Amino acid sequence: MKRKFSASVWREGDWYVAQCLEVDIASQDESEEALHNLREAIALHFEPPGPTTAPQVRTLEVEVSAA
Fold it and tell me: From 20, 30, 38, 56, which residue has the greatest number of CB atoms within 10 Å?
């Protein structure tokens, strides 16, 4: 399914910044390729999540001074 999004593109120093106005996603590049990067980031944002491996949780003991 295709959806349309609005993007704001501006130059910031040597970089182009592209920001989606509907979703809080932005990208940058040294060229107007930033808009292409934004398109890819939006597509990845809407991909369904895949299975992941649960992280290992460990306990740390740290000595801290009372400040």
Answer: 38
Question: Which class for 37: exposed (0-12), middle (13-18), buried (19 or more C-beta within 10 A)?
Answer: middle
Question: Which whole-number Å values give the CA distances from 44 to 25, 28, 37, 40, 41, in the listed order?
Answer: 11, 16, 11, 6, 5
State the residue for tokens 């740290």.
Answer: 62
Count of the separate structural domains present in the chain:
1
pTM for the predicted model, two decimal places: 0.71
pLDDT by residue (tens digit) across 10-53?
Answer: 999 999 999 999 999 999 999 989 999 999 999 999 999 888 89
* 12, part of any domain: yes
Q: Is 43 helix (H, G, I), strand (E, B) or coil?
A: helix
